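Re: export button greyed out
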Amino acid sequence: QQQVKQSPQSLIVQKGGISIINCAYENTAFDYFPWYQQFPGKGPALLIAIRPDVSEKKEGRFTISFNKSAKQFSLHIMDSQPGDSATYFCAAVNTDKLIFGTGTRLQVFP
Amino acid sequence: DTGVTQSPTHLIKTRGQQVTLRCSPISGHKSVSWYQQVLGQGPQFIFQYYEKEERGRGNFPDRFSARQFPNYSSELNVNALLLGDSALYLCASSSRGSYGYTFGSGTRLTVV
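Workaround output, generated via the alternate export path:
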């Protein structure tokens, strides 16, 4: 069964700090790895994504690091802000189907 | 561009009843997918439709069905509702060959 494992389940970070969320996958057939941000009462919104032939992608304060040999990828949020407080999901795409991780609830305190 | 529109936003049903959820994709998007998100968990894939044809089905019972219309909007039907069907049902649209899935805000279904 295809799985994406995500950790930690919850994360508390002080304003200005770095938030790091990790994911691991098993199926090598995945060909795209997006991260989604979800606020209460809303659907997930695409934050940043990476293809497996790239080791790192940065967009503003958000960076994905990808380790193909270890089948792991992570999201780094630099200079974390209270507005970043949300639930974050990693995902992997296989034949147009998104396989989501279990989610990380991030709380950023001022 | 009004984004992905889902209706209704909230719904309360009794066990054994049937429910129909609706989704309008972003203009120009021909692919629609449905996901179920139980509280505290990640969304789980239910169906994908492209050009009115089913292109993928997740591990859900036959009580779940869907269809896509000529205007690319979609309906998700769930029969014989169980308490465990209570969840946020999400619709996502994308253009063919694109991995940029855009989600709607979902329909919160409560089965009592």
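Chain A touches chain B at residues 6, 32, 34, 36, 41-46, 49, 89, 91, 93, 95-103 (CB under 8 Å). The button fix ships in the next patch.
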